[in-house]
Specification:
This protein is α/β, with parallel strands linked by helices. It folds into four domains: 202 residues, Rossmann fold (3-Layer(aba) Sandwich), CATH 3.40.50; 158 residues, P-loop containing nucleotide triphosphate hydrolases (Rossmann fold), CATH 3.40.50; 62 residues, no CATH class; 132 residues, 2-Layer Sandwich (Alpha-Beta Plaits), CATH 3.30.70. The chain is 41% helix and 15% strand. It contains 25 helices and 22 strands. The strands form five sheets. It has a seven-stranded parallel β-sheet, with helices on both faces. The chain has a seven-stranded parallel β-sheet with strand order 10-11-9-12-13-8-14, sandwiched between helices. It has a four-stranded antiparallel β-sheet with strand order 18-19-17-22. Helix 13 links the parallel strand 10 and strand 11. The chain is elongated. The protein binds adenosine monophosphate. The site of adenosine monophosphate has 12 residues, from helix 3.
Length: 614
């Protein structure tokens, strides 16, 4: 928490008034560190800070303060990798300089007519915000005159280098007075940044905001290992599992970007593509729609998404990993901003595993050095559908009804729907909202994830949030599940057909078992389930669960068979299954339902019935 104020940082009143009007109350850490330093003389600085940390004001406010608005000459240049960022910086500086009369900030960037920019510069611009290529063009034409420049800012310097602007930056820096201040802002510190620092910065101070990789703080890094042909189906499962997701899906090429976006759109998602083959006007519109949350998924290449500034992404999805670690850091740094948590998900194939380790070594440093990527299992169709269904219901519950507005239509609506019962109405409403998932997951492609050694190992070590690995052994042709070390496997006579999923099991155990009992691995079957509890609690759990009921039906919890936990222990006489359940028990004895659900299990009509009738 900041203790200083903007006043105490030494800013002038006109700037203080402007930022107060923007609602800036206290300086952000990067501003606290950078502003007083830059207000001094001959102070070069490298600040490692990502977009979203308040870096524009950190360099913008002192630069504005140092500019003499009486003089028309260019006194500061700010270089940015993209036109979007250029315009954004310019907007911010204009806001900050609202009460500095005579001060002109002019943006110049490629991809648009140079004539209008020449006219603007000729009117006089104390600050030019530029993309490197266009600035060189304007320097060569003699329009951008930089001999009086006192401050040079390289914003997102690592991005500019990634985009191949290294030589342009050299050329520009060679064309400005040697005794200027140079301020370099970058999200990452690579060898090229160090080269620029050594060549062009004098006696610079390095300011690191948060850790060198701020992203590590608020971002969970997760990967799903899948076969190449399952990538898109895996993407669908992931995005379906998060009904409130708002994400950028990064692809490697323009073609892949367009293909993924087309598929998503075809499959009913609110998605758009953003890549270099699109006209600038189209790209602007796409970005604007995404910023305003009119689009839920932006499928983009790294280059096209640069400069797009969105603070509230819930997820970044890497549809394959980028070639270089810096790009991964930039991608993942787009989520987990402004104090919120975010998740960076990578859908990768086996050959990309080594890249994960390489990224880990770079992003999990210092205090984060014991962190790892989480290797995750794709959600099952039934888990996805349950989540989506609850989301739909939740939305219904929270719809704000404007009674006055709909009053006039209600008689007609009532007349038309009078023949439907309440149940029918609910079913139809849910189906209308939920039908897409229902249809897809009734016949969803099976996804078999390749064996991920590190998943099992790290899970066993308890590194990934405590989810324990599956321990299986083959015995007599059957799969024998062995409880995790220190745990006992218990049986419960409720299954998915009883609408009993992990949450229901946890809830009922919590309700009947005194004290907190940790529940480990859960295996859900259609009519029964198994769950693991710590060895020392197992007996207590069985004892206390003896009283458990759902409605007026008893729930039985007992030891799972030690030899073959797929086999349901014989029910005691008093607990014989009800007639409808006897059929299931029979099926089981034929072996048709004796195995735990496999990946990609279809969501059957029976399951839907359970949903609607429960
Ligand atoms: P930036 O990293 O420059 O892109 O800034 C991220 C966001 O934080 C922008 O929307 C700024 O307007 C906002 N911002 C910058 N400084 C402050 C501050 N001191 N208080 C509140 N918001 C700020």
């Amino acid at each position: 928490m900041s203790t200083s104020t903007f006043q105490s940082l030494g800013l002038r009143d006109e700037i203080l008034t402007a930022i107060a009007e923007l609602g800036y109350e206290t300086p952000m850490p990067v501003q606290e560190a950078v502003i007083p330093y830059l207000l001094g003389d001959h102070n070069d600085v490298i600040a490692l800070a990502q977009t979203g940390t308040g870096k524009t004001a950190a360099y913008g406010l002192p630069v504005l303060q140092r500019v003499d608005a009486e003089r028309r000459t260019t006194q500061a240049i700010i270089l940015s990798p993209t036109r979007e960022l250029c315009l954004q910086i310019c907007d911010d500086l204009r806001d900050y300089s609202r009460y500095l009369p005579g001060l002109h900030v002019v943006p110049v960037y490629g991809g648009t007519s140079i004539e209008a920019q020449i006219r603007s510069l000729k009117k006089g611009a104390q600050i030019i915000v530029a993309t490197p290529g266009r600035l060189i063009d304007l320097m060569n034409r003699g329009v951008a005159q930089l001999d009086q420049v006192e401050n040079v800012v390289l914003d997102e310097a690592d991005e500019m280098l990634n985009m191949g602007f290294s030589e342009s930056i050299d050329e520009i820096l060679a064309g400005v007075p040697a005794d200027r201040n140079t301020l370099l802002f970058s999200a990452t510190m690579g060898p090229e940044i160090e080269r620029i620092a050594k060549s062009y910065l004098h006696d610079y101070k390095e300011i690191v905001i948060g850790s060198r990789n701020e992203g590590a703080e608020h971002v969970n890094h997760v990967y799903y290992l899948v076969k190449a042909q399952d990538k898109y189906a895996a993407l669908k499962r992931i995005v379906d599992y998060y009904p409130r997701i708002y994400a950028i899906i990064f692809c490697r090429t323009r073609m892949e970007t367009q293909e993924v976006a087309d598929h998503l759109i075809r499959d009913g998602y609110n998605a758009e593509a953003l890549h270099g083959d699109l006209a600038q006007a189209q790209r602007d519109l796409t970005m604007q729609k995404f910023r305003q949350h009119c689009t839920q998924f932006l499928v983009a290449t790294d280059v096209a998404a640069r400069g797009l500034d969105v603070d509230d992404l819930t997820h970044v999805i890497n549809y394959g990993l980028p070639d270089d670690i810096e790009s991964y850091i930039h991608r993942s740094g787009r989520t987990g901003r402004a104090g919120k948590r975010g998740t960076s998900i990578s859908i990768i194939h086996v050959r990309e595993k080594s890249k994960i380790r390489a990224i880990e070594r770079v992003i999990f440093t210092g205090e984060h050095s014991d962190r790892h990527f989480e290797s995750a299992q794709l959600p099952e169709p039934d888990e996805i559908c349950t989540k989506q269904l609850y989301h739909v219901i939740d939305q219904f519950e929270h719809v704000e009804v404007d009674d006055d507005q709909i009053a006039a239509f209600l008689p007609e609506v009532n007349r038309k729907l009078a023949w439907l019962s309440r149940e029918d109405l609910i079913k139809r409403l849910v189906t209308a909202e939920f039908g897409r998932f229902m249809r897809y997951y009734a016949d969803a492609p099976e996804i078999v994830q390749p064996d991920d050694r590190s998943t099992r190992e790290s899970r066993r070590e308890g590194k990934n949030g405590g989810e324990r690995g599956k321990r299986e052994a083959k015995g007599g042709g059957k799969t024998v599940h062995v409880a995790e070390e220190g745990y006992r496997r218990l049986f419960i006579n409720r299954g998915k057909r009883d609408h009993f999923f992990a949450r229901e099991i946890i809830n009922i155990v919590n309700r009947y078992v005194k004290g907190k009992v940790e529940i480990g691995r859960i295996d859900l079957l259609p009519t029964i389930a198994f769950f693991e509890v710590p060895e020392e609690s197992a007996e207590d759990v069985i004892r206390m669960m003896a009283k458990a009921k759902v409605g007026d039906r008893r729930v039985v919890v007992d030891w799972a068979d030690r030899e073959d936990t797929d086999a349901r222990p014989a029910p005691r006489r008093a607990e014989r299954p009800a007639p409808s359940r006897r059929r299931n028990a029979k099926e089981k004895s034929r072996g048709s339902e004796s195995k735990p659900e496999r990946k990609g299990k279809k969501f059957s009509k029976e399951d839907w019935k359970q949903f609607f009738n429960s």
